[in-house]
Amino acid sequence: xxxxxxxxxxxxxxxxxxxxxxxxxxxxxxxxxxxxxxxxxxxxxxxxxxxxxxxxxxxxxxxxxxxxxxxxxxxxxxxxxxxxxxxxxxxxxxxxxxxxxxxxxxxxxxxxxxxxxxxxxxxxxxxxxxxxxxxxxxxxxxxxxxxxxxxxxxxxxxxxxxxxxxxxxxxxxxxxxxxxxxxxxxxxxxxxxxxxxxxxxxxxxxxxxxxxxxxxxxxxxxxxxxxxxxxxxxxxxxxxxxxxxxxxxxxxxxxxxxxxxxxxxxxxxxxxxxxxxxxxxxxxxxx
Length: 287
Known about the structure:
The protein is an alpha/beta fold. It has helices spanning 3-6, 43-55, 71-80, 109-123, 142-154, 168-175, 195-206, 226-234, 238-249, 262-270, 278-285; strands spanning 13-16, 19-22, 26-27, 60-62, 88-93, 95-96, 104-105, 128-133, 158-164, 180-184, 210-211.
């Protein structure tokens, strides 16, 4: 079997608690309408992207109840249910969405319980494999929010718990309540992460916690310099080089690039088969 036919499996695997997934996943947020609000302009195209992801051996799909809101989860169920064995759908809870482009943290226990039950219904699941607390709420004690998810875990509604947009102190506090199997923070290949984020990544490495970077391709600064030069040398795109770099940067990094295009999805997944030389990796690390 060639690396091309392996698709996302060419990136290797990582464990999320008791689950094993390929290290190149798919972030479904971009399947919704503008401002992460409402249905997609082309529903058939959005469904096609999800189905193609599975054909490419993507078995980790990241979503959230706030994407749409609710639309993203409904699309996933429409496209993929009944789900194939081994597919992990990771969803998140912790935001209210008053309107397009608007995000208001809500870490209240009652909101999280309602959100989880809504996700179960929309995704047509009896249990969520991975539920990530989407963002700390400054108005609610962090332990109360994580505790609510731990209660749902004990009730069998959640298998594993993850966190998003957190620092090391918050991860440690959450770990005193329940096992944390993933952290989803911003970490881009273009080197825009700061010392705090590097500390979070190092903590995840020490504790075998999967690190799912959001916005892994940065803000467009990859178009010049080392990324562009290496892309030309491989006959690849700068996005593919960026994803290959992240996969090599740390064994816990599990990129979840998102797109609403089948062609772009195929381009991203092909990065799983791109091997960087030691010199190329060093050049990118210093870019």
